[in-house]
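request received
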Amino acid sequence: MSNRSASLLVAGALATAVAALGASAAQAGMPMNNANPRVRTMAALKSGKFQQCWGVALAGHNDCYAGPGTTCAGTASRNYLGNAFKLVPTGTCTAIHTPYVTIAHGHGSLKPITETGA
Amino acid sequence: MRPWAERQGQFAAALCNVEHPMPPGCIAPDGLPDATRFAVYRNNVISSLIECLQASYPAIERLLGATCFREVAFRFVAEAPPRSAVMLEYGAGFAEFLAQLEPLAALPYLADVARIERAWLEAYHAAEATALDPAALAAVPEHRSGDLCLTLHPSMRIVQSAFPALTIWQLNIAATAPIAVDLPTVAQDTLIARPDAEVEVRALPPGGAAFLNALGAGETLAESAALAGAAAAEFNLTDQLTALLGSGLITAGRLKRRRTRGH
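response:
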């Protein structure tokens, strides 16, 4: 294959790919692409489809804010911390079972939990 | 007294390997050396590292069974203690360790499945990057499109396997009962990346791995496509570009300067 026809093939493939994606992006209304986890968390909350659920996040899997002295997502030092939350589909939070009966009777909580003796 | 660094080195070496004796100078509150207390401490350290490996390699644990996995992980910890206090990164080299472990020679796909799990972890913790808008590439003049150099997403990893490693991984991270996999028939290449919040794992079509490895090494689009075509005749450049751009795995593009030739 000559260099000329090879470069035409590449150009054709690129043009087809860009055109196909342009059409689908316009239909979908351009997906939001935000790198900041804090902004993503807020966006998920605003959508109304998720709510903050406290006391159910596994260690390191909390979504954001794990209490004083920590920064943000993925920092909870152990499982089911009462002051760390996880975003869960709305309406499912208090149905989540956790092994900690001392925290909200072993369920997720819609408010941060003050631990008395877990 | 021996230098502090030497004592720390001895203590660290003894912590992860039960064959080392208790380092000298370890004393209990009563002022006497207590090997039992040191053994309890060492057991906690080793157990926590094994748990870290369990969390990172769930499919390997399922394939080997809990007892065998603990034994294998126990040997790995002794051989490769952590070099950093950050446990997120512990377990690099586990795949290579599995590959050379003689009792596991009957499971030759194990190392590749471990590579997928490792790549998943690395992709999960990799840097964020903004995807390139495909429309930006529409401005590239047709005769220069072959000179495009594309920057791949920093989370992207490729695992090439002579076995159906991806299928084996998928069957063993799901809670469902595994089905039989025909080993010798399929070789699978796997793409692991996290363009947004979730890690995506998918099979690469023939030539896909060669194409991405070439792009990642800084080759132009034309060179990468040629290498992929040489690796697999059925390589489809349009499909591959559409998939890459569509899933946000290209983060930048630039034109390579052509060497000026006299004509």
